[in-house]
Amino acid sequence: MTVNSRKKIKRGVYPGTFDPITNGHIDLIKRSLVLFEEVIVAIAPSPHKHPLFDVNERLEMIRDSVATLKCVDVEVFDGLLVDYVRKKKAASVIRGLRAVSDFEYELQMALMNRKLDPRIETVFLMPSEEYSYLTSSIIKAVSGHGGDVRDLVPPVVWKSLQKRFQKT
Ligand code: COA
Questions:
Q1: What domains are defined for the chain?
Q2: DSSP the chain
Q3: What is the distance in A from the centroid of ligand 1 to the CA of 4?
Q4: Residues with CB under 6 A from ligand 1
Q5: pLDDT value at residue 9
Q6: CB neighbours of 55 closer than 8 A, spacing ≥ 6?
């Protein structure tokens, strides 16, 4: 592998379903800004996951949640992730590794993406341990039963969850 330090493109793509975005995702976005000049949060529609929020709702919630962060863009993408990364002229895919249980699936995805485009690297970052148990599903499950998750999600998400589950 040849490394050309003068030709680095410092744009990373952080893909996910983000149904909804959590403080764990935000933590990862902030960490990625240490390494990348620009980060694109790329929302996959993921209809197979039967999302609670449609892509436009997810887009609005993420935009609101990262409004104070410089150099973060939020977009929806469809199709293959590597095609999108190439289109955006990004160098890397950013993913979080929360626990050993994430590793196998993430390795599989990273290697498949490398097979599809060997020029695109996947960079793994560790979220803060206080969020290491979080998933969007667990947030929805707890919230759906009236649990208080306000410390675990951005304010706009907390409001949307309350509205969706009719809590006041
Ligand atoms: N904090 C909180 N939660 C986190 C987290 C963090 N730091 N990191 C991950 N999670 C959660 C996610 O919210 C998600 O929760 P959920 O399953 O309850 O929704 C879960 O951990 C990870 O789910 P996963 O299925 O691994 O990822 P995803 O749905 O967020 O994103 C894509 C997967 C979109 C990146 C992938 O499907 C993709 O690339 N799709 C495009 C099509 C493609 O190219 N496919 C081939 C890939 S090889």
A1: 10-162 (3.40.50.620)
A2: ----GGG---EEEEEE--TT--HHHHHHHHHHHHH-SEEEEEE---GGG--SS-HHHHHHHHHHHTTTSTTEEEEE--S-HHHHHHHTT--EEEEE--SHHHHHHHHHHHHHHHHH-TT-EEEEEPPPGGGTT--HHHHHHHHHTT---TTTS-HHHHHHHHHHTT--
A3: 31
A4: 15-17, 19, 22, 24-25, 28, 44, 46, 49, 80-81, 96, 98, 109, 112-113, 127, 131, 134-137
A5: 56
A6: 43, 45, 76
pLDDT range class, residue 8, cuts 50, 70, 90: very low
pLDDT digits (tens, 9 = 90+) for 88-108: 999 899 999 988 888 999 999
Would residue 86 show up in a list of annotated catalytic residues for this protein?
A: no
11 tagged catalytic: no
Report the residue among 93, 136, 149 best suited for mutation to probe ligand 1: largest number of ligand atoms under 8 A from its CB: 136
